[in-house]
């Protein structure tokens, strides 16, 4: 099962055009100029047997077609003449199409959470985890409730990758989840593959929730 969300928005950016090398063999740049830079990203949720993985990838691009390899770009405004002294500025390439490698600016956790679009992505993931996890709980077999009560959710950010996970910490969870191990359950709603099916059966709800959160 997978669900996707896409977004884009525009912000002020600063570009330093590379002029060449100075007498000391160091790069020299023209003064900073301000442009309007479009940038955005996409988010994809995938479900496996051990949990939901929600992956976010960010892309950056601009229609500043005169930009070339060696030029520097910053998402934001700066009057500093030397781009190498500016935190967050990085060398771009093919800027007429896409700019990549901006020091993982939008992938950094602090920048991501501090950014309104980043917060939307996190909320979208939280919604997906809650919806799928709730349905999985309904399908979870109950004997002593240990398995049901061991369900957990967590979210982590690593570079441009945001991962949300729903799982079960009970040591026999994999055994109960495995469809190749026959069992009879007392609970009417209990099913094998309860975690996988919990997300599969709520795919439409998750899609709507992701879309709603990304549009707020």
SSE diagram, text form:
Blueprint lengths: L1 E15 L1 E4 L5 E3 L3 E16 L2 E10 L11 E4 L14 E2 L17 H6 L1 H24 L6 H4 L1 E8 L2 E8 L4 H5 L16 H7 L2 H13 L1
Antiparallel strand pairs: 1-4, 1-6, 2-3, 4-5, 6-7, 8-9
Distance between the first and last residues' Cα: 24 Å
Secondary-structure-derived class:
alpha+beta
The percentage of residues in β strands lies in: 25-35%
Largest sheet: 5 strands, antiparallel
Number of strands: 9
Q: What's the number of structural domains?
A: 2
Number of continuous helical runs: 6
Q: N-to-C SSE series?
A: EEEEEEEHHHEEHHH
Helical amount: 25-40%
Explained architecture:
- The chain has about 220 residues and is of the alpha+beta class.
- It is built from six helices and nine strands; from the N terminus they run βββββββαααββααα.
- It has helices at about 110-115, 115-140, 145-150, 175, 195-200, 205-215; strands at about 1-15, 20, 25-30, 35-50, 50-60, 70-75, 90, 150-160, 160-170.
- The strands form three sheets. It has a five-stranded antiparallel β-sheet with strand order 5-4-1-6-7. A two-stranded antiparallel ribbon has the order 2-3. The chain has a two-stranded antiparallel ribbon with strand order 8-9.
- Strand 8 (about 150-160) and strand 9 (about 160-170) form a beta hairpin.
- Helix 2 (about 115-140) crosses helix 5 (about 195-200) and helix 2 runs antiparallel to helix 6 (about 205-215).
- The chain is elongated and about 80 Å long.
- Residues about 55-65 and about 95-110 have low confidence and may be disordered.
